[in-house]
């Protein structure tokens, strides 16, 4: 590989992936496309701004001419699509942006990659497309998709578009699906950074329902290593699941966080459950382990403590997001003013 294009590289998983690839592939040029909506933070990759191997291109993946312009700058060995509207609660309030970015944006990227004959396309998806599990069993790559939220439905639709392009055009694409990620640079509306930040400030931790929903947790760097493995070794048309083999109820995780932060359980505040809240997600990642030689390397105990440490050491990062000050970074660095989002 000489040049890859990453979409949504200023988000949580995307920025961790860009940084990892920049460090582990010293001959690689990375072009990062990001619209910089509310969850896109250019400051996440401030340490790469001076690198000649990192190129930032602000724009919308739904803008066909913009995407084609980035692809035409130099030959592209792969495009990885991280760009997505991803917060379930926001999709319940307004599904429009999810349909536009997650479905239309994917279609634009697929067409552009076909036109420029990009030899590898990786669609970053989610285990939420499979729907909800009962108390037993695991999601495999053969599990029928049955999404239950506007967010997961839009991701399932984009996955089906990728599948159709593989079948119809022989398009060289793979799809990755992953369980809940945690780690540094996660936007503080999500459970772990929200709860860690609130607990540090002595604020309440809002737990949906009785907190009995179960999620499988994986460190973001383990996920990024899985995406890299799928990029380099994945077979065209295949789906690869990544999970951390760490299932936990939301209330158990909340109580563990409070214990590690030495905060009282009285901070827990039970709130009305999310509409259509899936009960359980759990990933069987045997296929990725067997075909790609991948396996999770970060134990949940060490990863969670490292995540807590990171947010404690970067409380100013959280505050800049909460105040909106983080949006001025792009203007300061690139000399352009962010448009209203």
TrEMBL record:
A GO BP entry: nucleotide-sugar metabolic process
Organism in which the protein naturally occurs: Planctomicrobium piriforme
Transmembrane segments: none
Cofactor(s) the record lists: NAD(+)
Catalytic activity: dTDP-alpha-D-glucose = dTDP-4-dehydro-6-deoxy-alpha-D-glucose + H2O
Start and end residues of each NAD(P)-binding domain: 6-306
Name listed for the protein in its UniProt record: dTDP-glucose 4,6-dehydratase
Stored NCBIfam families: dTDP_gluc_dehyt
Family membership: Belongs to the NAD(P)-dependent epimerase/dehydratase family. dTDP-glucose dehydratase subfamily.
Enzyme class (EC, first level): lyase
EC number: 4.2.1.46
Entry GO MF terms: dTDP-glucose 4,6-dehydratase activity
UniProt keyword annotations, A-Z: Lyase, NAD
